[in-house]
C-alpha cells in the first residue's frame, strides 16, 4: 500500500525508414530498461510525407530483449547449424492517415537492453538516379515509458517475509537475489488468509517478460494449504522478480508469508578435475591430502555425497576487435567430460557490445579418448544460467531460457552451433557424458572434447558472395551481411536466386567489352583531327572497362587499382566525354574551346568529389554545354543568314541519329536499370553513348587535309605553305 512508483521517459530521434533488402535497411533503436521496472510502454510513431508519391505503406516493427532482433522478411535461408527463433513483431499501417501512433505494453519486463527494429516491405530493386525522383519519406520514432518501483521488498533466503496484498488491482512485487552456483530454488507461500476469512486464491508469477519468447513461471495457489514452487537452473547473480496477485474479491486484502531457499551446486576444481577424494576427506574433517589423479571410485564417492555437482573450466576472454572475441581454455583446447558431473565453461558476453555479432561454438570429440564406444557427449549452450542436469533431463532448458543443444559421439565427432545476435549476458556451455544403458556403465568413462568458441561480426565473413558491414546506431555497433550475385540470406548462403558462374562471366564480359564501342568514336575523332577529344574517349574507355571489371559482385573480378579510384575515374571520364563532345559540336574558336575544356574538366572533377552520384553532376555540364552550342549555332546562322548546320545530309545522317541514340541511352540509364538487369541495360548504355558520340562529332575543319602518312614521312627539302598562304624559300 505504501509502495512508491516512479515513471521515467526515454526517447530517441526519429529515423527515416528504408525498403528492406538486407539488415542494414532495418532501423534499430536501442533502449535500456532499469531494474525494478513493473510496467514498460512503447510509444511507436510512424509517419509519411504529404507528397503525391507517398502511398499507403505497412511498417513492420520487431522487438527483442538482450540483442537486436533476428528477422527474415524475405523468407531466405539461414546458414546451416544456425538456430533461429521467430521474432516478435507488429505491423503499423499508414493508409489515409499521415501519422499512426501505436502503444505496446509489457508488464514486469526484464531489466537490461531492449531493441526495436523497423523497416518497410521488400525493396523493388530498381536503380534510381539521385535527383531524378524524390522518394517519399517514411519516418519512425520509438519512445519508452517505464514505471519503476523504488522500494521493492527484498526477499532474504531462508527468512519468511510477511506481506499483504491490498487488492487485486495492486499486486505484490518482491525480488530475491540468486547467488552464484545456485542449483535450485524453493519458493513457499504459507499462512495465506483473506480479510473476509475466505479461501485464499492468489497467482504467483516468477521471472520477467522477455521477447520474442517469455518463460515466466505462473502458479495459481488456492485454499489455506501451503503452496510451493521449485525452479532449477536459475540465472546466477541476478535479481529474480516475483509478483503475487490476488484472485479474490475486489475489496478483500490477502495476508501471506513468502519463504525462499536455495540449494547450492558447489564446483569442483579446475585443474585436472581436482582431487575429489581429498576434497571429500576435507568435508569429513580430514586433511586435504596431496593431489592424486581421480579414480572411478573417487568419482562415485563424490557423486554419492553430492558435495560437488559440476566441474568448472577456466576460460579467458580475448578481445580481438569490434564485436570480435576469442575464448581460450587455460588448460588447453580439450576438456575432460565425465558422466557424474557436467563440465561447465563460462563464455562472457556481458560487455554490452557483444550482441551485434554471431557466437560460434564448435565441438570435436577425440574418439580414442572415449572408453565407452556407444556413449554420447551431450552439450547445451544457454544464457544467464547453466543446465546442470543433462544426464537426467537432456532437454537443454533452464528456468527462464531455452538453450541450444549439441551432441557428439563416435558416429558424429563434430558439432557446430551458431547463435545469431546472442543476447547480452553470461553464456554457459555444459557438457556431460551419457550412456544409453544407464549411468552406471559411464561412471568410469571419460571423453576428451576440443572446444572452439568465438564471437565474430559475421559468420564466415559472409562467404565469397557477401560483404560484412559494421552498422552503428549512436554508440552501439552491430554487423550485417550485404549479399551480391543473386545470393541472399543472413550470411549470404542462400543460392536460390544465385547467378551461375557462367552468368557472372557473361555479365563481366558484357559490361567490359561493351566499352570497346568507344573505338569507332576514337577512330572518327583521330581521323577528323580531334586529338584532345580522342584522348578523353580513350581515357573513358580504359577506366570504364576496368571499373566494371572490379565492380562485379561474383568471382569474375579483376581490380588493377583501388576500387574507389576506378569508380571516380569512370564517372569523371563519362561526364568529361559528354562535355567535350558538345563543345566540339559548337564549333567555337579553338582557344576558347580548349579553355572551356580545361575549366569544365576541373569543375566537373570538383563536383564529382562532392557528390559522385548526383544527377546534376552530369546534367549540369551537359545543359551548360548545350547552351554554349545553341548560342554558337544561332550566331553562325545569323552571320551566314541560313540554318546552321546548313547541310540536310548532316542533319539526317549524323545529328538526328546521334541525338536519338543519346536520348535512348539517357532513358535506359534513368528509368530501366534494376539490380537484376543491370549487366545488360548498362552495357546498352555504353553502346548507345559511344555510338552517339561517333555520330555527333562534327566534320574536320576545311583547311585540314586528310591523314596521308606517306606524304607526312618524307626525307627531302620542300617548300612549306601555312594557312595564310605565305611562301617560304628553304635555302
Automatic annotation (TrEMBL):
Name of this protein: TMM8A factor
Question: Origin organism of this chain?
Answer: Odontophorus gujanensis
Q: Where are the transmembrane segments?
A: 506-530, 591-610, 616-635, 651-672, 678-697
Domain (EGF-like): give its ranges: 454-493
The disulfide bridges present are: 458-468, 483-492
Describe the family membership recorded for this protein in Swiss-Prot or TrEMBL: Belongs to the TMEM8 family.
The record's InterPro entries line, in alphabetical order, gives:
EGF (IPR000742), NGX6/PGAP6/MYMK (IPR021910)
Pfam families linked to this entry: DUF3522
UniProt subcellular location: Cell membrane
What's in the keyword line of the UniProt record? Cell membrane, Disulfide bond, EGF-like domain, Membrane, Transmembrane, Transmembrane helix
**Membrane topology field:** Multi-pass membrane protein
Q: Among the entry's GO cellular component annotations, what is one?
A: plasma membrane
Amino acid at each position: 500500500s505504501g509502495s512508491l512508483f516512479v515513471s521515467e521517459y526515454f526517447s530517441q530521434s526519429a529515423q527515416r525508414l528504408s525498403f528492406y533488402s538486407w539488415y542494414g535497411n532495418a532501423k534499430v533503436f536501442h533502449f535500456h530498461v532499469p531494474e525494478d521496472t513493473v510496467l514498460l510502454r512503447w510509444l511507436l510513431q510512424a509517419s509519411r510525407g504529404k507528397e503525391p508519391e507517398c502511398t499507403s505503406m505497412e511498417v513492420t516493427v520487431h522487438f527483442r530483449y538482450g540483442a537486436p532482433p533476428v528477422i527474415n522478411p524475405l523468407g531466405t535461408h539461414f546458414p546451416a547449424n544456425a538456430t533461429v527463433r521467430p521474432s516478435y513483431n507488429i505491423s503499423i499501417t499508414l493508409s489515409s492517415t499521415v501519422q499512426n501512433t501505436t502503444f505496446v505494453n509489457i508488464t514486469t519486463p526484464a531489466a537490461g537492453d531492449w531493441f526495436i527494429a523497423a523497416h518497410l516491405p521488400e525493396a523493388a530493386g530498381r536503380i534510381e538516379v539521385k535527383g531524378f525522383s524524390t522518394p517519399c519519406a517514411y519516418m519512425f520514432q520509438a519512445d519508452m515509458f517505464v514505471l519503476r518501483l523504488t522500494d521493492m521488498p527484498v526477499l532474504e533466503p531462508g527468512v519468511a517475509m510477511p506481506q499483504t496484498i491490498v487488492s487485486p488491482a495492486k499486486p505484490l512485487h518482491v525480488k530475491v537475489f540468486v547467488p552464484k552456483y545456485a542449483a535450485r530454488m524453493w519458493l513457499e507461500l504459507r499462512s495465506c488468509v483473506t480479510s473476509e476469512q475466505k479461501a485464499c486464491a492468489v497467482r504467483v508469477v516468477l521471472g520477467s517478460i522477455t521477447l520474442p519468447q517469455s518463460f515466466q513461471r505462473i502458479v495459481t495457489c488456492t485454499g489455506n494449504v501451503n503452496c510451493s514452487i521449485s525452479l532449477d537452473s536459475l540465472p546466477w547473480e541476478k535479481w529474480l522478480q516475483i509478483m503475487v496477485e490476488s484472485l479474490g474479491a475486489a475489496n478483500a486484502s490477502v495476508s501471506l508469508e513468502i519463504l525462499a531457499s536455495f540449494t547450492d551446486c558447489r564446483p569442483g576444481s579446475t585443474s585436472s578435475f581436482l582431487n575429489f577424494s581429498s576434497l571429500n576427506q576435507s568435508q569429513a574433517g580430514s586433511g586435504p591430502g596431496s593431489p592424486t589423479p581421480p579414480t572411478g571410485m573417487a568419482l562415485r564417492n563424490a557423486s554419492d555425497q553430492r558435495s560437488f555437482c559440476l566441474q568448472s573450466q577456466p576460460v579467458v576472454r580475448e578481445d580481438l576487435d569490434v564485436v570480435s572475441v576469442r575464448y581460450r581454455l587455460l588448460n588447453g583446447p580439450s576438456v575432460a567430460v565425465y558422466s557424474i558431473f557436467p563440465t561447465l565453461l563460462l563464455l562472457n558476453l556481458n560487455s554490452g557490445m557483444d550482441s551485434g555479432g554471431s557466437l560460434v561454438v564448435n565441438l570435436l570429440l577425440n574418439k580414442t579418448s572415449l572408453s565407452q564406444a556407444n556413449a554420447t557427449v551431450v552439450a547445451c549452450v544457454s544464457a544467464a544460467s547453466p543446465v546442470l542436469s543433462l544426464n537426467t533431463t537432456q532437454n537443454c532448458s533452464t528456468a527462464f531460457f531455452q538453450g541450444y543443444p549439441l551432441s557428439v559421439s563416435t558416429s558424429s565427432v563434430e558439432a557446430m552451433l551458431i547463435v545469431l545476435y546472442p543476447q547480452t549476458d553470461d553464456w554457459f556451455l555444459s557438457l556431460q557424458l551419457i550412456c544409453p544403458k544407464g549411468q552406471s556403465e559411464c561412471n568410469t568413462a571419460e571423453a576428451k572434447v576440443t572446444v572452439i568458441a568465438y564471437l565474430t561480426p559475421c559468420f564466415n565473413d559472409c562467404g565469397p558472395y557477401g560483404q560484412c558491414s559494421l552498422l552503428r546506431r549512436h554508440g552501439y555497433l552491430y554487423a550485417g551481411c550485404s549479399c551480391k550475385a543473386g545470393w541472399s540470406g543472413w550470411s549470404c548462403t542462400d543460392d536460390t536466386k544465385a547467378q551461375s558462374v557462367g552468368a557472372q562471366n557473361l555479365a563481366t564480359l558484357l559490361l567490359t567489352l561493351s566499352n570497346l564501342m568507344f573505338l569507332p568514336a576514337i577512330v572518327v575523332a583521330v581521323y577528323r583531327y580531334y586529338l584532345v577529344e580522342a584522348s578523353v574517349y580513350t581515357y573513358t574507355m580504359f577506366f570504364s572497362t576496368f571499373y566494371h571489371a572490379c565492380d562485379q559482385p561474383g568471382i569474375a573480378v579483376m581490380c588493377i587499382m583501388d576500387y574507389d579510384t576506378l569508380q571516380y575515374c569512370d564517372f569523371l571520364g563519362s561526364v568529361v566525354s559528354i562535355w567535350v563532345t558538345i563543345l566540339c559540336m559548337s564549333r567555337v574558336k579553338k582557344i576558347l574551346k580548349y579553355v572551356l575544356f580545361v575549366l569544365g574538366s576541373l569543375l566537373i572533377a570538383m563536383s564529382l568529389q562532392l557528390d559522385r552520384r548526383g544527377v546534376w553532376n552530369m546534367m549540369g555540364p551537359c545543359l551548360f554545354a548545350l547552351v554554349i552550342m545553341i548560342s554558337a549555332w544561332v550566331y553562325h546562322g545569323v552571320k551566314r543568314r541560313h540554318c546552321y548546320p546548313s547541310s540536310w545530309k548532316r542533319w539526317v545522317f549524323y545529328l538526328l541519329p546521334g541525338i536519338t541514340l543519346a536520348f535512348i541511352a539517357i532513358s535506359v540509364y534513368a528509368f530501366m536499370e534494376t539490380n537484376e538487369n543491370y549487366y545488360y541495360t548498362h552495357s546498352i548504355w555504353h553502346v548507345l553513348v559511344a555510338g552517339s558520340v561517333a555520330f555527333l562529332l562534327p566534320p574536320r575543319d576545311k583547311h585540314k587535309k586528310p591523314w596521308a602518312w606517306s606524304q607526312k614521312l618524307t626525307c627531302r627539302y620542300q617548300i612549306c605553305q601555312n594557312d595564310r598562304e605565305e611562301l617560304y624559300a628553304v635555302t
